[in-house]
TrEMBL record, chain A:
<keyword id="KW-1133">Transmembrane helix</keyword>
<protein>
    <submittedName>
        <fullName>Inner membrane ABC transporter permease protein YcjO</fullName>
    </submittedName>
</protein>
<feature type="transmembrane region" description="Helical">
    <location>
        <begin position="190"/>
        <end position="213"/>
    </location>
</feature>
<feature type="transmembrane region" description="Helical">
    <location>
        <begin position="242"/>
        <end position="259"/>
    </location>
</feature>
<keyword id="KW-0813">Transport</keyword>
<feature type="domain" description="ABC transmembrane type-1">
    <location>
        <begin position="101"/>
        <end position="315"/>
    </location>
</feature>
<feature type="transmembrane region" description="Helical">
    <location>
        <begin position="298"/>
        <end position="318"/>
    </location>
</feature>
<dbReference type="InterPro" id="IPR051393">
    <property type="entry name" value="ABC_transporter_permease"/>
</dbReference>
<feature type="region of interest" description="Disordered">
    <location>
        <begin position="1"/>
        <end position="21"/>
    </location>
</feature>
TrEMBL record, chain B:
<feature type="signal peptide">
    <location>
        <begin position="1"/>
        <end position="22"/>
    </location>
</feature>
<protein>
    <submittedName>
        <fullName>Maltose-binding periplasmic protein</fullName>
    </submittedName>
</protein>
<dbReference type="InterPro" id="IPR050490">
    <property type="entry name" value="Bact_solute-bd_prot1"/>
</dbReference>
<dbReference type="Pfam" id="PF01547">
    <property type="entry name" value="SBP_bac_1"/>
</dbReference>
<dbReference type="InterPro" id="IPR006059">
    <property type="entry name" value="SBP"/>
</dbReference>
<keyword id="KW-0732">Signal</keyword>
Length: 328, 438
């Protein structure tokens, strides 16, 4: 009896008991699935971004020169020396960094502004269907699709003092300048860099704004037209506010790309950029890889990272607050 | 459900695989340091008119080496603009070639990294001894008092190349021996509508080679005896200014040359647009650009007074290429055999003829193949009036920082801005402050 009594509940509960762990296991599996799927991304993020970043931060506290690059971990600690050198704006290294920073900020603001303006204007202009629109759109995207190196090398040829197309047009044909100008050395190099940067960057703005424009209902424009709004008013009251979210991302991405652009100045000017066009990415590259002062270069990189974090954070905070107010 | 589970398993496997390859990437890939004693990897610097030309010159020799020793050499010709960075990367990762070429001025800098095999007596014995090499070439193989980090392979020196026709048209009988003569000749040449002298104002290394020689001619050095940078010494400033003044004040170097960095001045000379060129071993280069050998003459680089010689009459740096062995090669024996082969009399003759350079090996240098007038000038310069660039660990940084300063001064001169003693000193001071503390 006892045995049956004992056995019975067991027999009764056994199927349920077996089901319960299975269900629990299923639930665990279901709950863990998203994390499992995220794992590759997390690992890659760790390997590609976080580990090198951590190594860079460690390096910035070391005296890392040619004597230690075979095994950087043996380089002696230098405390905050690398940072002190970088921000000592009275001494040449700090002064050059500050100047490069100033050039980069000015260059970025101008380049992003122009890219956005040209891209938006082109997108608005191309909004209405007309003959040849597809072809024109494809043409607009050519600078964006070309490999950076090939495109910038072509610009190098065009900017050459003696045989370049730019001087040929400005000086020989239009007689705008008294003497052929230098574009790849000296002060004009800033404008050469800006030209290439805008030429390369605006098609991206055009692409994104065009995509954004597709989402604005045509009825809004029709209604506005019925109410007597002109083109400019339609752009101001409908197009720009509707593009707000798109522009917010666009400007941020353009800003980060332009601020950190390395390829354009490096291909244009080589490893020693003229002072007027000494963008911070090449400046840091030169400090680390050309003068083999990896510790100072790392410190400069960390300072740059902090700056970009603050600016990006501030920008996101500001724009999202603006949107919340607008939504409310 | 099964497909989701499969996806999850796949994702995890993928991430683990990625992690494994990423971690192991440094040690398993590359394959440069041949584990097999029957292979070697060789990074050759780009010596000829193009990478393809170099392959054509070198491959038959490497085949010969394979026939003799059974060791296959995998060749990679690396352009100059990439070479130092490639070596640096290889040093950091430990994944370098077995044998490589280095610019001889980098010897001390690369020696400091500890990546290159030191050439002590024992290693030199494997390739026939230290005495086989010319002393001036050995001067650019590392810091004095230490075992060399490399072995000289090709030697070069600067000379003055001049266009015979332009000289004759301007009524100039012989090439200038001093800078004053050059400037005076320049006036006559400009009167004929030709440009006088070429320079590569935006090429950092070229700038360094010239200001170094100018400093020597002024009795000055960029480094103190104990290896500290001394870029702002009054005589150094004066020397750098006098080089830039060739454009800024004397106007013998055209303003357009301030942005040259891709050997455009060699093309200008080869095309007959320009009367003179200061270059190292230009013959092969000029030939490849279609300039016939009778069209130009070759003379020693001018000095301040008198004739070239030791001391302040130095008129060239000791230019050249060294061959080095990566310390962590798995085939040290094979590497030594290869260096021996490349520095053997027979190979020295073949390779230096192909590149119009001078063999740094004594016995090969005496070969009649190197007795032609242009090689004689280079040989004589190397023997009597050339000096090695400072063999200090920070030489490579010196090339960059001072080279950049000179580039900026040329840019000022080209834009018509005054180049003064103060502006030169300011640029050099900045260069000095950017040098790493040694």
């Amino acid at each position: 009896m006892t045995t049956t009594a004992l056995k019975e509940p067991v027999r009764e509960t056994s199927p349920g008991a077996a089901r319960a762990p299975r269900r629990r296991a299923g639930r665990i599996r279901r709950l863990s699935l998203p994390y499992l799927l995220l794992l590759p991304a997390l690992l890659l993020e760790l390997l590609v971004h976080l580990v090198p970043m951590a190594i860079g931060i460690v390096m910035s506290f070391k005296e890392l020169t040619q004597f230690y690059i075979r095994d950087w971990s043996t380089a002696p600690w230098s405390g905050l020396d690398n940072y002190r050198v970088s921000v000592d704006f009275d001494a040449p290294v700090g002064k050059a960094l500050l100047q490069s920073f100033g050039v980069t900020v000015g260059f970025t603001l101008l380049s992003v502004g122009l890219c956005w303006l040209i891209g938006t204007a082109a997108a608005v202009f191309m909004q209405d269907a007309f003959r040849g629109r597809g072809l024109l759109r494809a043409l607009f995207l050519v600078p964006y699709a070309l490999p950076v190196y090939a495109a910038v090398i072509t610009w190098v040829f065009m900017f050459q003092h003696d045989n370049g197309l730019v001087n040929h047009v400005l000086h020989d044909q239009l007689h705008l300048t008294g003497e052929p100008s230098f574009w790849l050395i000296g002060d004009n190099s800033f404008y050469a860099l800006l030209t290439v940067s805008v030429w390369k960057g605006w098609p991206f703005a055009f692409l994104i704004v065009t995509a954004g424009l597709q989402n604005i209902p045509r009825e809004l424009y029709e209604a506005a037209a019925l109410d007597g709004a002109g083109t400019w008013q339609q752009i101001r009251r409908i197009t720009l506010p509707s593009l707000r979210a798109v522009n917010q991302v666009l400007v941020l991405v353009l800003f980060l790309w332009t601020f950190n652009d390395f390829n354009t100045p490096y291909v244009l000017f080589g490893k020693a950029a003229p002072e007027a066009a000494d963008l911070i990415s090449v400046h840091i590259y030169q400090s680390s890889f050309v003068t083999w002062n990896f510790g100072t270069g790392s410190a400069m990189s960390v300072l740059l990272l902090l700056f970009l974090l603050v600016v990006t954070g501030g920008y996101l905070l500001l724009t999202s607050r603006g949107r919340r107010t607008a939504d409310a | 459900m099964r497909s989701i589970r499969a996806a999850a398993v796949g994702a995890v496997t993928l991430s683990l695989a990625l992690a494994a390859t990423a971690c192991g990437g440094g040690s398993s890939t590359g394959g440069a340091s041949g584990d097999s004693p029957k292979t070697l990897t060789y990074w050759a610097s780009n010596q000829g008119a193009s990478v393809a030309v170099d392959k054509k010159v070198l491959q038959p020799e490497l085949d010969k080496f394979e026939k003799q020793t059974g060791i296959k050499v995998k060749l990679e010709v690396v352009p100059w603009s990439d070479l130092l960075n490639r070596i640096l990367t290889a040093t950091t990762s430990g994944q370098g070639p077995d044998v490589l070429n280095i610019g001889n001025t980098w010897s001390a800098s690369l020696q400091a990294t500890g990546a290159l095999l030191p050439w002590d007596e024992q290693n030199f014995a494997k390739i026939g001894g230290r005495d086989r090499f010319v002393e001036s070439a050995l001067g650019s193989t590392g810091v004095q008092g230490k075992d060399p980090a490399a072995v000289p392979l090709y030697s070069m020196a600067y000379a003055l190349y001049y266009n015979k026709k332009i000289f004759a048209d301007a009524g100039i009988g012989k090439p200038p021996a001093t800078w004053d003569e050059l400037i005076a000749d320049g006036k006559k040449i400009k009167a004929r509508g030709k440009s006088v002298l070429g320079a590569e104002g935006a090429n950092l290394s070229e700038n360094i080679h010239h200001v170094f020689v100018f400093a020597k001619q002024h009795g000055a050095d960029f480094f103190t005896a104990d290896g500290k940078p001394d870029f702002t010494a009054p005589k150094v400033v004066e020397a750098v200014k006098s080089y830039v003044d060739l454009m800024a004040k004397d106007k013998v170097v055209p303003a357009g040359d301030a942005e040259y960095a891709q050997n455009q001045s060699v093309s200008d000379f080869a095309k007959g647009r320009q009367a003179m060129l200061l270059w190292q071993s230009a013959a092969a280069n000029l030939k490849s650009q279609g300039m016939s050998e009778d069209a130009y003459g070759i003379a020693p680089v001018p000095v301040r007074s008198g004739t070239p010689g030791q001391g302040t009459q130095v008129n060239s740096m000791v230019a050249g290429i060294n061959i080095a062995v990566f310390k962590n090669t798995h085939n040290l024996d094979g590497a030594a055999k290869f260096v021996k082969f490349m520095t053997s009399d027979a190979e020295q003759k073949i390779l230096n003829t192909a590149y119009s350079t001078v063999p740094p090996v004594r016995s090969a240098q005496d070969d009649p193949a190197f007795g032609a007038p242009d090689t004689a000038v280079l040989k004589n310069t190397l023997a009597t009036s050339a000096a090695a660039l400072p063999q200090v660990p920070s030489e490579s940084q010196f090339e960059t920082t001072v080279g950049t300063a000179v580039k900026e001064l040329f840019a000022d001169a080209a834009a018509g801005r005054a180049v003064t003693t103060d502006s030169v000193r300011a640029k050099l001071e900045k260069a000095q402050q950017q040098m790493p503390a040694a």
